[in-house]
Specification:
single chain, alpha/beta, 5-stranded mixed β-sheet, 3-stranded mixed β-sheet, 10 strands, 29% helix, globular
Length: 210
């Protein structure tokens, strides 16, 4: 039986999502540009859909939200070494500072899609062997310099050097990206500050989120 309980931490009660397309391939490859547009449509739908109503009805004290247009961070990523969580955080902060991304607030969630061919490294864990996506938070700043909690979710693109979509039971890359996004969205709105500040909804017995 699930034993998820509320630990008193922050929730994203009405999430404000923004897609972040990390890497120059999202801009230079027309197929990927189209996929980014479709992912933006998906985010706009899912945050204001029966999927969020399910969380409300389950008693997690979160509801429907909204989304703003996604942004491509047109960066050259090293496909030999990959990208680290620390580097992604730095790029998010830089884009916030420049005004390219919407301002962080109590409901903001940046949903990061890393371009194909890039392994993501989070400490000892990598997208090659440990995760399809994850979410987190860090102490950052607004463009004006005020302290702000920055909440984000990261999705690895399926296919070499990462596992293929088919190997994970998905029919396509888009199927995997939307499924993992849905998963991370539910966890992020109910426990946005995991491994950062006070937990929200968490299962102590099974050591996991909803």
């Amino acid at each position: 039986m699930l034993t998820v309980t509320y630990h008193g931490g922050a929730l994203l009660a009405n999430v404000e999502a923004q897609g972040v397309y990390l890497g120059s391939d999202w801009a230079s490859n027309s197929a990927l540009s189209n996929q980014a547009a479709n992912l933006d449509k998906f985010l706009g739908y899912v945050v204001n859909s029966p999927y969020m109503d399910m969380l409300t009805q389950a008693g997690y004290n979160v509801g429907r939200g909204s989304a703003v247009a996604g942004q491509t961070l047109n960066l050259s990523l090293n496909k030999s070494t990959g990208v680290t969580d620390t580097q992604i955080r730095g790029q998010l902060q830089a884009a916030i500072n420049s005004g390219q991304l919407a301002a962080p607030d109590a409901n903001r969630l940046y949903v990061v899609y890393v371009e194909p061919g890039v392994v993501i490294r989070d400490g000892a864990d990598t997208s090659q062997n440990s995760f399809l996506g994850y979410h987190g938070a860090f102490a950052g700043r607004t463009a004006g310099g005020a302290a702000a909690d920055i909440r984000y979710a990261i999705m690895a693109y399926p296919g070499t050097p990462n596992p293929s979509a088919g190997s994970q039971g998905f029919a396509s890359a888009m199927d995997q990206l939307t499924s993992v996004s849905s998963h991370e969205l539910a966890e992020a709105v109910t426990d946005p500050d995991v491994d950062y500040k006070q937990l929200g909804w968490y299962d102590d017995q099974l050591d996991g989120e909803i």
